[in-house]
Amino acid sequence: MTEELLKQARSAHEAARILKTCSSSQKDQALTAMAQALRERQEEILAANKLDLEQGKEQGLGSALLDRLALSEERLCGIATGLDELAALPDPIGEVSGMWKRPNGLEVGLVQVPLGVVAMIYEARPNVTADAAGLCLKAGNAVVLRGGSEAIRSNLAIGKVISEAACEAGLPQGAISVVQNTDRSLVAELIRLRDYIDVVIPRGGAGLIRTVVEGATVPVIETGVGNCHTYVDKDADLKMALEIAINAKVQRPGVCNAMETLLVHEEIAPKLLPTLGAELGKANVQLRGCSRACQLIPAASLATDEDWAKEYLDYILAIRVVSSFDEAIAHITQYSTGHSEAIVTENYSAARRFLAEVDAAAVYVNASTRFTDGAQFGLGAEIGISTQKLHARGPMGLTALTTTKYIVYGNGQIRS
Amino acid sequence: MTEELLKQARSAHEAARILKTCSSSQKDQALTAMAQALRERQEEILAANKLDLEQGKEQGLGSALLDRLALSEERLCGIATGLDELAALPDPIGEVSGMWKRPNGLEVGLVQVPLGVVAMIYEARPNVTADAAGLCLKAGNAVVLRGGSEAIRSNLAIGKVISEAACEAGLPQGAISVVQNTDRSLVAELIRLRDYIDVVIPRGGAGLIRTVVEGATVPVIETGVGNCHTYVDKDADLKMALEIAINAKVQRPGVCNAMETLLVHEEIAPKLLPTLGAELGKANVQLRGCSRACQLIPAASLATDEDWAKEYLDYILAIRVVSSFDEAIAHITQYSTGHSEAIVTENYSAARRFLAEVDAAAVYVNASTRFTDGAQFGLGAEIGISTQKLHARGPMGLTALTTTKYIVYGNGQIRS
Fold it and tell me: Is the pTM here over 0.90, yes or no?
């Protein structure tokens, strides 16, 4: 254990004790000050980001990764605006969701309180540093941020700017901190600091999530891995199916709610697949089909079992023709990661069964899986998309960053 | 991995797929049938229990443990009545807690669904086998039950009776299963079966909980460890403080919501402690005090730092005199396990600050900590008391055994 990390975690724990009693206006003033500081101190952040980008190019990072890493005046303004919007949202803390009187006169209530200290473990996007800090703070939590080594200078610069602004606005030292040392062994230590950290949220690829789940003793909220399916039922509207399938695959293939496998009922496959195959081909999507799909789409290559399980996050789509609704459900049950699943159908009973039988964070009828997102669902800002069943499932807004406590008012009750 | 355990987990996983589509009346009929079977097949359960008790005596188990292990006609009827009461409770599954329309016409709703497969890991009480199975089933979950080796014959007998009754009532095979092999290494395997098990709930002593938290990759809900405090403020009603302190310690010392440390403000200590010391002495409670407490209670021995951290679960109480409200809060912050904490005071601001600043599942003003319990809080039956912050906190009723999923109704929406 490095002393530095332990010191940070202790300081966050101490800050959380104070943060939980801060008023909404104190927290909102801090968020506004953080936004303002990001606008005023752009230069030092962009200078740090430039160094990260240069190093990234030297190390041969791909263009997609470099794009995620890059900041600009415009992007920083966007991040600042996000913090301002957060300040304007209602504070989830202190809300009493119910209070009831027991026969012995005890009044038992349930109140929303902060989690305490949240550790975020993420990869190359430096915007997460400010976004996650803002969300955690708004919900009354301290946050320890551990981003990827590619973005370390940017993260430290953003962390410095926003934590100084938060302190000047009266929030405790240690409320926001960025882990300086990006050595991987530190992650293993961080996720076992049960005395100081209340929850770990990993946000990134399947490898990162697995490492955290395997090693953590602090409770984890898993996010993000999405092997998402769209099933085109025999009773689908053909044009709608075409548009939804193209959108779910092509609109932004690198994100977790993009479609990875298309399932098509055999009755509609001959009408849908030749056109869809051509359209996806034009969009440079590689197609990997079962043998029946390949017969209908000459450009498709034969899929292997691995294709059904794969989250491509790329311009690649697996396609399988199924003989029945049940076969589609069975395929999804076997391969789904429980993120987002969609059916396209005009059949009432098929829609109803799909909604009931598919076990995922978000289940759709007649819409693109790309909508699984906090803003799209109307939850405000989001800290990630939970693919686990405990605590939070699907897009996680502010409420997912809180817990509850029972408050009990008595006048001398004892138990008999 | 034993083949047997893997088979059980797979079978539970398959059963969960069917259970989640069972109607409330199917589940309730099964619960009623299980209760009826427990009444009708008492003899085979009591015979198995007798063998467990004989073995326990041979192995020299203490009387408290033997009492927990013992079943009787009366206790079995109590368990059966519990299942009947469960059948009468409302079904949490399928409740749509909200549905809203987005600007693009998408309708997004949030529906309560089962967790899937729950693994319960517990110790010597065979009643948990039926209670936990009933609660899990009512919430649409399959359950894998792994009780202690002392109770294995009783658990298998109860498991056989209730799972046969559930199957005859139309629930799937595998919905309820008891792990036969009580070898400890199997627990380590069970809590890593992420493909088949959705949540692990350990219920027992601190050692069991630690083992599960350390070894699990399946998400865990921690339960039960309670180092509970009562703080008698300077402005407390003396008679009320006396009654609450005695009740919280003596009424049932072996359970997690019993008081383990009493904190007393120095201004009221000379009035409270001599009387309280005498009363607790009469009740055979051993007292361990700070030096000031020992001056006021001659029978008390000097407490060590270990006493402040200890969950005695016995007729022992640690007592500390504090100079201020803040000192009391600091002590609780340092030693609390986040279970139940109480203040006795007539002072409005002290009560308000205590409720706000103490971080625990249940925080009390002027009542005994012994009330932290599902039935006492009016939640109906309870599967345990969560001392963690994720998912559920405090007494866990049926809702704690569910999760949510987003259901999204569209008419062709794609994302731009």
Answer: yes
